[in-house]
Amino acid sequence: MQILPTSDRVTIVAHATTARSACPSCGVASPRVHSYYVRTLADLPWQGRVAALQIRARRFRCANADCQRQVFAERLPEMAGPWARRSERLAEAQRHIGLALGGAAGTRLATRLAMPVSGPTLLRLVATTKLPASPPPRVIGIDEWAWRRGLNYGTIVCDLERQQTVELLPDRNAETVATWLRQHPSVEVIARDRSSVFGRAIREGAPDATEVADRWHLLHNLGDALWAAIGRHRGAVAAALTVVDTPPGTPAQEAPRVIGTTGPTLDALRRQRSDERQARYTAMRRLHEESVPARLIAPALGMSQRTVERWLTAGGAPEHRRPPVASMLDPFRRFLEQRWAADGLTASGYRGLGSEIDYVKVGDELQMFGRGGDYLV
Length: 377
What we know:
By secondary structure, this protein is an alpha+beta fold. The protein contains eleven helices and 14 strands.
């Protein structure tokens, strides 16, 4: 063996010491040397310098007369594989760098560590990594994941008992998931979300498996159901909260009223809007019973698809009702009413259908009052 150091590189010249080598085809060991050649292998660095092995390798004649291979090169199984350009220990170190950092970042770190390698080579080393064998999955979780959010989606399958990813499917089609489930009959329990695609895939691919909802979707479903139930009785809930927050012995406060306005009252507007919502829900329910999908009901009624689905799930149109609130005008209301009556002021006003604001004209001055009579201008 010979060591040839330079300023940035170390070359180690060596040769094999065994007298025989086995034929890779028939396995018969042969001592008959045919010729020599030089084989260069990149190796782990030495004191911060790039290292290389320069091996004087041999070619042997096969001793088996019936073997189809007449000449073969000697193998170095403990050092490098056939046709390899780097030693096994260097390839293992670069493989770990690729697994940790990927191609571009791994290249920069490997160059800094005197193990130069290209990004594509690092990725090839990662692709050839042999994964440890794992037992067949029994309890799995299925969900979608985004190749590109909003455009392309795939399916991820996880082993919930070992907390490991089992498979990444290229799409989220029911046929693809069902095919994978047929190939893994060991699956007994499947956790999934409310997607109908996964439900159909499980019925087709693993009909005997038990379907369960994971913890997040279970709580999410419960929250949706509770919100829908409360939304139908929002006025009663707000009134109950008002009673709870009122100290014992406090006299009931009269709802503030707006002075000197004309047009429909607030209660009439609320009844009108409630009737409109109920009419929409009636038409929506009729179309739904005729098997019209929500995506077609929404444009027909001038609503969003999400709103249509929420109303159908709740079983009715939501009620938007707020309890009467105290106004900053209340301490001065009696004085203003007295002035209003004593001075003989005339008032005219307008309340828009989409507004909770009263415009009151006192003399030549236009004043604006908000919900409950709050003075704004």
